[in-house]
Design goal:
Blueprint: E1 5-10, H1 14-25, E2 30-36, H2 39-48, E3 53-56, H3 65-70, E4 77-82, H4 88-93, E5 98-101, H5 106-120, H6 129-132, E6 140-145, E7 148-153, E8 157-163, E9 166-171, E10 175-178, H7 182-186, E11 194-198, E12 201-204, E13 210-211, E14 215-218, E15 221-224, H8 230-237
Parallel strand pairs: 1-2, 1-3, 3-4, 4-5
Antiparallel strand pairs: 6-7, 8-9, 8-12, 9-10, 11-12, 13-14, 14-15
């Protein structure tokens, strides 16, 4: 069995740490071994543990992520996770693997991990619980809704509708409008559980009540099947 990449999250915001921790949990090649609320905690943790990769915030009390990284020797691999774009030059001067701007989408996070794996294991393919259907009942995503990151369990999603630069997600018990494109959300959904049936609609396959060559019915909703998606829908659902 190949050894996993041991990583820690360093961020003074609890929600930011939780989001990165959830992303890490979906990548089989990563193992979260620590979560620190500031750079001082991280110094102490790294002194006692072998760390391969740090997800590091920049603006933190007492010691910034930049100052923290300059004080490490040897230096683990680092991916900066920050709300500020003006530190990018400093980050890359310190040979950071990547520089992620909050709010961080899973698809963007995944690209950073590919960079890490190319350095660690060139032939390794990344697996995550969402794409592989592993632990689907517990799988979830965070989406930006107004000023908060909302947690949404995939098993509860009935359908997703595109509203230009936004999407409207209908779940079993609520309706959410989030700032995200439908093309980016479809990339992170498991294909065995979700199907794009129209340029403006993605459906949860488990919730289909009935369907025809022109539409799908889900909990009283009638969702059209687009002309360019008919073949894919036919292949997936096996009708006419």
């Amino acid at each position: 069995m190949k050894e996993k990449i041991k990583c820690i999250v360093v961020d003074d915001e609890p929600l930011a740490r939780e989001i990165i921790e959830s992303y890490v949990s979906r990548i089989n090649d990563l193992k979260l071994i620590g979560s620190c609320a500031n750079a001082i905690e991280a110094f102490d943790f790294i002194a006692k543990n072998k760390v391969d990769l740090i997800f590091l915030d920049i603006q933190m009390p007492e010691l910034t992520g930049i100052e923290f990284l300059k004080g490490l020797n040897p230096t683990p691999k680092v991916i900066f996770t920050t709300a500020y774009s003006n530190y990018a030059v400093d980050a890359f001067n310190l040979e950071a693997i990547d520089y992620l701007l909050k709010p961080i989408e899973f698809s963007r996070f995944l690209k950073s991990i590919h960079k890490v794996l190319k350095l660690e294991k060139p032939a390794t393919q990344i697996k995550n619980t969402v794409d592989d259907g592993i632990n689907y009942q517990e799988a979830f995503i965070y989406l930006k809704v107004e000023k908060k990151m909302q947690k949404i369990f995939l098993k509860d999603i009935l359908c997703i509708e595109s509203l230009k630069n936004y999407i409207k997600i209908k779940t079993i018990d609520r309706e959410i409008t989030a700032h995200k494109s439908i093309s980016s959300i479809v990339e992170i959904l498991p294909t065995e559980k979700f199907l794009r049936v129209h340029r403006s609609f993605i459906i949860g396959i488990d919730f289909i009540d009935a369907f025809s060559p022109s539409e799908v019915e889900i909990k009283g909703l009638k969702i059209p099947i687009g002309r360019n998606y008919k073949e894919e829908v036919k292949k997936k659902l096996g009708y006419f």
